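Morning - tryptophan inputs below, output right after.
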Amino acid sequence: MRKRILTGITTTGTPHIGNYLGAIKPALNLAGPDCDSYFFLADYHALIKQTNAELIKDSVKNVALAWLASGLDTNHSFFYRQSDIPEVHELTWILNCSAAKGLLNRAHAYKTITAENIENKDDEDKAINMGLFSYPILMAADILIFNASHVPVGPDQAQHLEMTRDIAGKFNHIYEEVFTLPEAIIQHEISVPGTDGKKMSKSYNNIIPFLCDEKTLQKSISKIITNSLEPGDPKDFTNCNLFNLYSLFADEQKINNLKEAYAKGIGWGDVKKQLFNLVNNEITPIRDKYFELSQKPNLLNDLFHEGANKVRPQAKELITKLRDIVGISEIG
Ligand code: TRP
């Protein structure tokens, strides 16, 4: 069977270099001519964490443009918004009715918050909405609605894929074999350090943006924290933030050259310059494309519309079949 690759991108925030290296680039590399690929914007998932409508809208726009600018080809893959496929919600309910609550109780994201609440002597479910609790079912529906065979995700999503397989398997067992059990393709986290050395994350305020002008990129690279060794002092490249970031973009030759330069006492300012040049070289075509695409007023709406038109018939077909299987169909 032809591989069917599917992945969703939650629309919270604007993608940064960590997202580009860890998710966008590897997922696009998987989408070859030998498979069907589905890339979608998980905007209903975003509502769980974000109640500001303007921020949701901005994020949908920026995440979509980031993927397109990074090379997502809408002629050779399906690109759509989760919210444009209402059948996903119908499937979510159908799955809700067979998925075990106990399974969802064990979700890491949910368990972490309840554990914190208990530790703080608060109500166990403080600040937990039903969206957060049922998140894995909506995610299972995203995947199963198109019977995806392979799902590239970060390691933090591995459990959700296990749950999807459980949920699908249980439904197949109760009714009949309708769902493909999807395989996770775990994109091993390359650890991308932020400007302070901790993992790059919006919540740590340490990101290096990639959809920004050159000056902003330069500025954020200049903010990367280093130790106080002077130019001329030999430096250690192990555990060095700047070096680690550089290695994510450089080939072996360049990495070796930089190691030598460290031993010879290159100044931090010069390392930053080299890092900037390297990142900027890779990012420039993407940035140019991003700015070009953001000038086209109806581009995204048109693409979303087209994408939904292409995939919705598949979703409708499955839902018709499922309705019949569960007994919600015309009375004979
Ligand atoms: N939960 C995923 C994340 O935060 C996003 C997502 C939603 C997803 N639905 C999906 C990923 C379906 C893969 C398949 O990264």
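Note: The beta strands are 3-10, 35-42, 78-81, 150-153, 183-186.

O.
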